[in-house]
Amino acid sequence: MTGTRPVRWGVLATGGIAHTFAEDLRLIPDDAELVAVGSRSADAAHRFADRHGIARAHGSWQDLAMDPEVDVVYVATPHSAHRAAAALCLEAGMAVLCEKPLTLNLAQAQDLVTIARKQNVFLMEAMWTYVNPAVLRMQELIADGAIGELRSVHADFSIALPYDAAHRLHDPAQGGGAVLDLGVYPVSFAQLLLGAPDAVSAWAHLNPQGVDDNTGILLGYDSGAVAVLSCSLGTQTAQHASVNGTLGRIEFARDFFHAGGFVLHRQGHEAEEIRLPESPGNGYTHEALEVARCLRAGLTESPYVPLDGTLAVMATLDAVRASIGVRYPGE
C-alpha cells in the first residue's frame, strides 16, 4: 500500500484475543481501521461486527482473504489453526499478522514463510514483545555496552489455570500445553538477546492428555552463555525476567513480555529505574503500528520481527517438545 491513509484490517476468528485486538485498533485511528471480520460461522462474524462497528462480516475465512477492501488480516485463531488460516490468506495475496506461536511446529512455520516469500506478501508473527518500547530500549542499552557481555537470561511466564480437559490449553488437538502458549515468550526473549542456542534441554510434567503443564528449559551457547526459562499452567508468577552481563544486569520485575519499564543495575552505579510511556489499551497497538510502517514502506517482513528469527524460535520449541515427549495429532 502507499500513502498515509489508515491500514485497513480484517480479523480472522472471533475469540477473546480478537476482541482485544479490535479494541486496541480503535486507539490508533490515523494508522488503523477495522473494516472486516471473518469466521467459519456467519452468526459469530455478524455478532463480532455488531459489537465493534465493522462494516463487513464474512461467513468464511476465504471470503475475508479475498476481500479487496482489506490490506492485512490478523489471524486470531488458536495456534492449531494458524497454518491453515494464514496460508489461505497468503495464497490469496493478503498480508498477514499471525498470533504467536506462528504455527504448531517448524515444518508448518517454514511452509508459511515459503508461501509468503513466493507470493512476495507481508507476514509477521504477532510477537509484541519484540516491538515493545521497553524491550527496544533495553536492546539499545545492551548494544551500548551498559551491562557488558551477556552471560545469562532468566525468564518465566506462568499462570494459574484450573485443569479442564476441554480447555484449549490442556487439549493436544488444539496445540495445548504451556510451552507453545506461554513458553514461546521466554524462548523468544532469550533468542532476541542471545540468538539461536547451540544446545536445548528441558524437563516437564505432562497432564493426563499428554501435554505439558509445568516446564523448565535450558538453552546453552558455545560462548558460555545460558538461558534458564520456565513456563507453567499451574501457578501464577510475577512473569519476571533478568538479563545478566559482565558489567551489570537488567531486571523486569513482572510482565516482561509487555513491560512498561525495567531496572538497570551497573557496577559502581545506583540502580536506575527506566520507565517508558504507558502502552495504550492492552498493548497490541505497537505491533499494529509496526505492520502499518512495514506496509507503507513496501516491506514483506518486519526487521524487528524477522521471519528467520521466528523460524529459529520454532526450531527451539520443537526441540523442547521432543525433549519432554509432547506430540500433537498428525505429527
What is the number of helical segments per DSSP (H or I, 4+ residues)?
Answer: 9
Helical content (DSSP H or I, runs of 4+) = 25-40%
* Distance between the first and last residues' Cα: 38 Å
Strand content: 15-25%
Shape verdict: globular
Largest sheet: 8 strands, mixed
Task: Trace the largest sheet across and list its strands.
Answer: 8-9-10-7-11-12-13-14
Taking pLDDT < 50 over at least 5 consecutive residues as the criterion, the unreliable ranges are none
Cα Rg:
20 Å
* Average pLDDT taken over every residue: 96
Helix-strand sequence: EHEHEHEHEHEHEHEEEEEEEHH
Q: Based on DSSP secondary structure assignment, what is the total number of beta strands?
A: 14
Helix-and-strand structural type: alpha/beta
Question: What is shown here, in short?
Answer:
With 331 residues, this protein is of the alpha/beta class.
Folded structure, characterized:
- This protein is 33% helix and 24% strand.
- The protein has nine helices and 14 strands.
- The protein has helices at residues 16-25, 42-52, 61-65, 82-91, 106-119, 133-143, 178-194, 285-296, 307-324; strands spanning 7-12, 32-38, 56-58, 72-75, 95-98, 123-125, 150-158, 199-206, 212-220, 226-232, 241-245, 248-252, 261-266, 272-275.
- The strands form two sheets. An eight-stranded mixed beta sheet has the order 8-9-10-7-11-12-13-14, covered by helices on one side.
- A hairpin with a 2-residue loop joins strand 11 (241-245) and strand 12 (248-252).
- The protein is globular, with a radius of gyration of 20 Å.
